[in-house]
Amino acid sequence: MKSARIQYHGDTLAVAVNDDGHPLLADGTILDPEQVTWLPPATGTMFALGLNYADHAAELSFKAAPKEPLVFVKAANAYTGHNGRSWRPDNVEYMHYECELVAVIGKTARNVPRADALDFVAGYTLCNDYAIRDYLENYYRPNLRVKNRDSTTPVGPWIVDRDDVPDPNDLRLRTYINGELRQEGTTADMIFDVAFLIEYLSGFMTLSPGDMIATGTPKGMADVQPGDVVDVEIEGIGRLRNHMVSESDFFRNTEE
Amino acid sequence: MRHAKVEYQGRVRTVTIGPDDLPISDDGAVLDVTALRWLPASGGTLFGVALNYRSLLEARLPEFHQPPYQKPPEKPVLFIKTPNTRNAHQGTVARPQGERLQPGPALGVVIGRRASRISEQDALDYVRGYTVVNEFSLPEDSYYRPAIKAKCRDGFCALGPWWVDRDDIANPHDLTLTLTVNGVEKQRGSTADLIRPIPRLIAELSEFMTLNEGDVLITGTPPGRVDVSEGDQVDTTIESIGTLRNLIVTDHGGEAKQ
């Protein structure tokens, strides 16, 4: 089963999604996926992992993989849904995508041992954890200016039920810019997997339903530019599309 | 005017605070303070600003010219206090076993309406009011990596007891903050020492993040954080705003919740 949040005829709806990726209304009506506004499927806190793939850590010139997870936090202002727009600030040198598997928490979790951890997962979605290299300062790195920007973390399109993803540690990840494959990896290369991360985080704080854990990205970064269509895809989960626009276009169109 | 959120007779209410600090409901009734529970003064996203007191930053400058920092921060050093950290006046805070727990007195700025790309000149138009924040943390030896293990524990951000309307505070940049532990003053500062005053913070944050109604900017803690332990009563006072009280308790490791 897949579930999503959409806007349709002005209403915000929680809907099921069929195997063809079409949202279903409660009365069974099948909607055209291009005729709805896809919202982020969850809106809780996102705990995002830095350097969670050994090959990506090496790409960023880190000598050794981290011994403890590097976790940063996003709030709801950062999220946008499938087919949404993200913006590249004017005058930056390098902005890159990051295709990531996201586990969505299904029930309150505190002090959960690794063996039970996946019981607390409602399902999986994916995100594109864009980053702007120009804005990396060495304080709380990666800082909010890099990672909590408005509408710069696409999430979705939907959540796939946990039980429909038998092995979250063996999924192919791919990123395409304008249809061209630019990044490819597998969740098998994660350093800290979902079960470990739930044990780790819930060991010092309470996780709540709707919270998300974004598990990091493999190597293969590339710059994105306004006009680019950026798709992140995870086998068995979905393909999440994002439209890059310039800073001036983004804010021109959101003026009230 | 002062306003608060409380739970009284099983209902969440927004009340005003009258003379003698007593909460008054919509119909003019004075509520029995012994029978109510204070709630966090705001429910939005909690944005923290680190290193925003000049004397604190200056004390660490030599270190910030060394690796891994290389140079002092250029932009506000920001963090998020996650929703599980929200706590209230008279709320308990558990000291994690084997860790040092430190209160962080701070002026909280409550956002009144959606703010995106706001100039410094207009910034205060978007402020609803001010509240007292105690931003609890484990000691921060380093500012290099996100500090969620130090800052995002359950109950680590108390806000309250109430918020004061913006226009009732003539100058939010000249307020004394004090922290007392069991009645003894341990820490003192003034918002006159802020590196980035409130309008500048709103301008710099709203440049890339929309601030929404109910969000709170935690404007920073002055230098001199102290350790507290089980049984301590910790009071955070900001001149003209109020006193926020919290009690430190033993951490039982948190219940495994299903």
TrEMBL record, chain A:
GO terms for molecular function: 5-carboxymethyl-2-hydroxymuconate delta-isomerase activity; 5-oxopent-3-ene-1,2,5-tricarboxylate decarboxylase activity; hydrolase activity; metal ion binding. One of its GO terms (biological process) is 4-hydroxyphenylacetate catabolic process. Pfam families: FAA_hydrolase. Residues 46-244 form the Fumarylacetoacetase-like C-terminal domain. Gene3D superfamilies: Fumarylacetoacetase-like, C-terminal domain (3.90.850.10). The keyword Metal-binding applies. Keywords: Hydrolase, Metal-binding. The keyword Lipid metabolism does not apply. InterPro entries: Fumarylacetoacetase-like_C, Fumarylacetoacetase_C_sf, HPA_isomer/decarb_C. PANTHER family: 4-HYDROXYPHENYLACETATE CATABOLISM PROTEIN, ACYLPYRUVASE. This is Fumarylacetoacetate hydrolase family protein. It comes from Alloalcanivorax xenomutans.
